[in-house]
Design goal:
With about 210 residues, this protein is α+β, with helices and mostly antiparallel strands. The protein has a single domain, classed as Chloramphenicol Acetyltransferase (2-Layer Sandwich). Helix content is about 35%, strand content about 20%. It is built from 7 helices and 9 strands. Strands 1, 6, 7, 8 and 9 form a 5-stranded mixed sheet that branches. A two-stranded antiparallel ribbon has the order 2-3. A two-stranded antiparallel sheet has the order 4-5. A hairpin with a 4-residue loop joins strand 8 and strand 9.
Length: about 210
């Protein structure tokens, strides 16, 4: 928490806001993992998700949370993303992270299958304790759209401490590069524009590392 203490005055400043959320949408350029995934027979969405989760785990500013009016840092991040069934109804997935890529993808695919088959809305977080809920990052993919902005629903803006990440349609720029709309929403007491820049930079580096593994 040493890094947080250095910015506690910034947190105290934004904590007084009715809506302390920072939301930035931008074009994220990364190495072209689509061709790599095709060659390796890996689902591109789950490969990208794995790289994203690994990246978020490296950046403290996306792991700060508030509970009982106190700031703390979570030790691990769980995946939770939206998917849709054949009736175009969305549902939530949930699964525990693994640093092993094959195991992560296996868990992610199983969670997706469960969510797609569920007839009712599941994994809403209602069944979790307030502390358990803090381990999550909210993730949305809108693969059909090259969107330019997004507004995530928030239960209570003033206390919204769990970051939300969204991305859209992958567009191939070249054999080496792809681009996509990418959005990050987070509590400004924890995250500034520079941290979103670091997220983008580190994510691209993580993708490159995984493609060399």
């Amino acid at each position: 928490m040493e890094n947080f203490e250095a910015r506690r005055d910034r947190f105290n400043f934004f904590e007084s806001f009715e809506n302390p959320l920072l939301n930035i949408t931008f074009k994220l350029e990364t190495p072209n993992f689509l061709s790599y995934c095709k060659k390796q027979n890996i689902p591109a969405f789950h490969f990208f998700l794995f790289c994203l989760m690994k990246t978020l785990g490296k950046l403290d500013n996306f792991k700060y949370r508030i509970l009982d009016n106190k700031v703390f840092k979570i030790d691990e991040i769980y995946g939770s993303y939206t998917t849709i069934n054949e009736d175009n109804l969305f549902n939530y997935t949930r699964f525990q992270h693994s640093d092993d890529r094959a195991e992560f993808i296996k868990r992610s695919l199983a969670a997706r299958e469960e969510a797609m088959k569920a007839e009712t809305l599941i994994n809403t977080g209602i069944e979790l304790s307030p502390r358990e809920m803090k381990n999550y990052i909210f993730i949305t993919s809108i693969p059909w759209l090259d969107f330019t902005s997004i507004q995530h629903p928030v239960f209570k803006s003033k206390s919204a401490d769990i970051p939300a990440v969204a991305w859209g349609k992958f567009t191939v720029l070249s054999e080496e590069k792809i681009v996509m709309p990418f959005s990050v929403q987070a509590h400004h007491g924890f995250v500034d524009g520079v941290h979103i820049h670091l997220l983008a930079k580190t994510l691209s580096e993580q993708i490159e590392l995984e493609m060399k593994a």
